[in-house]
Amino acid sequence: MLAANVEGRAIARTQRATPRPGFVHLVGAGPGDPELLTLKAARVLSQADVVVHDHLVGPGVMDLVPRTALLVYAGKERSNHALPQDRINELLVRLARRGGRVVRLKGGDPFVFGRGGEEAAALAAAGIPFEVVPGVTAACGVAAAARIPLTHRGHAHAVTFVAGHRCDGNADLDWPSLARAQQTVVVYMGLAGLPELCRQLVAHGRAPSTSAAVVQHGTLPTQRIVRGTLETLPRLVASAELKPPTLVIVGEVVAVSEALVAMPELATLAAD
Ligand SMILES: C[S@@+](CC[C@H](N)C(=O)[O-])C[C@H]1O[C@@H](n2cnc3c(N)ncnc32)[C@H](O)[C@@H]1O
Fold this sequence. Notes:
With 272 residues, the protein is of the alpha/beta class.
């Protein structure tokens, strides 16, 4: 009911606003730090009539939404989907049909584990013009903030992004390929399945001593990093009581990063 009211107000707003035909911008908001937004994303956001946003969009990014724009929360936490995906697709189509600039604002990049492809397909099927504005995906933004190089000569010549909610026992992940040495595996949505992930990688041949880390709230002031190995990480993470969103990074590059975190950050230097 609440969602229907919000939807109704959003549609009324676009009817009053900018001219037809409507246009949808599928915009990547990056991993949280508003300074990681692209210039294009910031411009498109500043011109929005309606913004349909996810829970992963950082508060600093939401501050850039114009006061005149109507906000629609589409949710999507692990167990709290404010609107199911089909409803989001339909909503975008309906909003666009009434004219105006509709921004679909999504954490990270819209086309990396973001269902941006499904939304784009719904818009294309309905004949709605749209564009995709890429964002810094969590793997890149979070790894940079944690100073973990995703590839590094002599340690990782490949990097694989994988969705960890599939690490639930009956996963259809390609474990032999993920367990290959000399590669980095970045796991999105991997906190709940972390013990199974580590167990499967070791069972398929990755050394138990392989370095691995979990980064909570990467790029945000609440960022925390827990480092360990495939053998120790699940226990360390359980006792650290990390809160999502978190990213799991597995590979020798995590050990490489230990030398990099020893250097002070710019903010620390400026404070001295
Ligand atoms: C549904 S996926 C969306 C990914 C997004 N489209 C992207 O490109 O980053 C959500 C997952 O991304 C990861 N994630 C997003 N932002 C993060 C952050 N600031 N810190 C750690 N992990 C993050 C987490 O694994 C989270 O569960």
